[in-house]
Write a structure and sequence with these properties.
The protein is α/β, with parallel strands linked by helices and about 450 residues long. It has two domains: about 5-160 and about 315-360, D-Maltodextrin-Binding Protein, domain 2, CATH 3.40.190.10; about 160-315 and about 395-445, Periplasmic binding protein-like II (D-Maltodextrin-Binding Protein, domain 2, 3-Layer(aba) Sandwich), CATH 3.40.190. It has 20 helices and 15 strands. The protein has helices at about 5-10, 40-50, 60-70, 85-100, 110-120, 140-145, 170-175, 180-195, 210-215, 235-250, 265-270, 285-290, 330-340, 345-350, 360, 365-370, 380-390, 400-405, 410, 420-440, and strands spanning about 50-55, 75-80, 105-110, 145-150, 150, 155, 160-165, 200-205, 225, 230, 255, 275-280, 300, 320, 445. The strands form five sheets. Strands 2-1-3-14-6 form a five-stranded mixed β-sheet, with helices on both faces. The protein has a three-stranded antiparallel β-sheet with strand order 12-7-13. A three-stranded mixed β-sheet has the order 9-10-15, covered by helices on one side. The longest helix has 18 residues, at about 420-440. It is globular.
Amino acid sequence: MPKNPRRLLCGIGLVCALALGATACGGSDDDGSAQKKVGATDIEAALKKGGTVTVWAWEPTLKQAAADFEKKYPKVDIKLVNAGTGNDQYKALQNAVSAKKGVPDIAQIEYYALSQFALTKSVTDLRAYGADKLASSYSPGPWNSVKSGDGVYGLPMDSGPMALFYNKKVFDKYKIDVPTTWDEYLEAARKLHKADPKAYITSDTGDAGLTTSLLWQAGSHPYKVDGTKVGIDFSDAGAQKYTEVWQKLIDEKLVAPVTGWTDDWYKGLGDGTIATLPTGAWMPANFTSGVKNASGDWRAAPLPQWTAGEKAGAENGGSSLALPVLGKNKELAYAFTEYANSGAGVQTRVKNGAFPATTKDLNSAEFQNTEFAYFGGQKANKIFAEAAANVPTDWKYLPYQAYANSIFNDTVGKAYISGTKLSAGLKTWQDASAKYGTEQGFTVEK
């Protein structure tokens, strides 16, 4: 630990920008790893006795899973609370931990943010409940994301193995082949924009999540994490593969200067001026609800590879359910978490639009044979399931990744609006992230 551990605990995760970490100072010193083992008998007794479990989450499919759980266990009341999405909820959670009041029993925490809560001992190590025995139940990316050291600090709720969504109507019109490598993707971008100067292969104004996911797929390892020791380096071979291709897309103005999730972005996806979208397998529901006019035009394909013939994947998005240390009704909380994320609740959630992290569901005939009317009847889940199986497990996020992501546009983002090169932007991001880590009490290796 650093010389001033309280400074570290107070500093973790957007201290200045979003106040995510200040509250860890009010947390318990027990991360749950020292708890006595909790067996099935203990959990069954708790379910029989009943009680209330407060769940902070924004994921919509939990509503039906909670209703089904309450029907199965009538004495249990699952109270779902939307305390905000992402950083808004994390701020509220940390404030509750600091005050030691109003802490939920279960909290939805995205994979990239979970490690900061684990390091500050704000969430419970679920090995005491036998969670480590569920390792083989999940695809590699999500399972690796809920682990920190030997501990298991949440159960994967969903996953986001990446695929390439492309507008088949546009590709057919301009006789463009679906790219299987990123070099082919670059050539497709050139061909498309030449044929129609108003059309672009994709849009990108600088997205930390997309960048880290593509680095992950390229075999880059920019972050090294060992407790409070971290290393940050965006100059390895994998990063160079990414910057070489993406720099050309930017220099040649082959990506639309449209920010994701805006009205202009949805319009571009709908009218074909944005022709592809490399993103997580959770995207189909967003196409269906947000780009209705292009139903039948789009398809899914495997993510292009950095080296021909490979099948490397990456995750983009996804969340876990974790048990805050200061929450109550731990046995009931774990019972619902396992039900929703590993048990019968998974099927319920999948039927309502969730993308599973469980291998049993990913590999089931029912799941893989699902036909997507939006994608012209394509059985896209086969592509997504294969992508999930090919995610490298050696990726790590910083224990203050939320802060790092918050300064992305001020560093790497400049490459999209000025003459700054991506490689230079990544170096600036590296230096700024390292500086912040040092200020918060981490040992940052050069």
